[in-house]
Amino acid sequence: MPELPDVEGFRKVLAGCARGRTIEQVDVRDAGVLHGVGAGRLSRDLEGRRFTELERHGKWLLAHTGGPTVQFHFGMTGRLVCAHADDAPHAHDRVLFTLAGSRQLRYRDQRKLKGLWLAGDPEAARLLDEQGPDALAVSRADFDAALTGRRGRLKAALTDQSLLAGLGNLLADEILWQSRLHPSRSTGSLTDGERAELYRTMRRVLRTSVRAAQVPPRDDWLTGHRDAPDPGAPCPRCGTRLRAGRAAGRTTYWCPHCQPAPD
DNA sequence: ATAGGTGTTTCTTT
DNA sequence: AAAAGAAACACCTA
């Protein structure tokens, strides 16, 4: 599930659950989610420390400790949960951080496509160098700079994390639909006015989604109609049947009337 | 029982 | 050279 709004929600979960509290014990129940570090060193390096700054960039969450930094990526199914240390763990709880005051932060992940990295600050900085500007923080000028000079399709550009960090499949479709731009428009063909509208819409969609800690499946948004049965739900704006297809390697929904096809 | 999913990487093809 | 496409990763649901 996690796109920028979900990860921002996890940042708040981590802050409320763990910030400032001593990490008493790290229990790795499935080492399959650890990358570049084993269970032993993860525990040894974190136990006795506390989480300090909690930084989100795109879909990455970085938890600083004053020593090593824990880098979380949630893949498709990862999440953070705050529980009581005595609560029975969930089947998909892969790593448990027991904190002072009997709280327990849990990395829960069904599919284990990503997980946790442990890095020194220089390495954490290098990770962020490979990411484009955060979609929630990017200025209009940097947004323009990211999109100009691209030759591919618009949806591929919006979901390319090295160009702009944080947008996933749902957000890209929602933003394009609200902007009335077809996912297959070539990025370079946008007028200045269209880019301005795209930027404004992206900010509005992100603001609403961050408040909900997800892309909300609202009836008056495209997202509310993705899982409609075969014939395709009507566009909430004009009633035309929504189309589904493939773009940037992912299932993509759009309204053939509101989002005119290029060519 | 096969397909597909709010993600990314890597390899191959255009 | 850049971009699109397909497969792989792991697991569950329809």
From TrEMBL:
Reaction it catalyzes: Hydrolysis of DNA containing ring-opened 7-methylguanine residues, releasing 2,6-diamino-4-hydroxy-5-(N-methyl)formamidopyrimidine; 2'-deoxyribonucleotide-(2'-deoxyribose 5'-phosphate)-2'-deoxyribonucleotide-DNA = a 3'-end 2'-deoxyribonucleotide-(2,3-dehydro-2,3-deoxyribose 5'-phosphate)-DNA + a 5'-end 5'-phospho-2'-deoxyribonucleoside-DNA + H(+)
Which cofactors is this protein said to need? Zn(2+)
Question: Does the keyword field hold DNA repair?
Answer: yes
Q: What is the protein name given in its UniProt record?
A: Fpg/Nei family DNA glycosylase
Respond yes or no to whether keyword Coiled coil is given for this record. no
Q: Where is the FPG-type domain?
A: 226-260
| One GO biological process term | base-excision repair
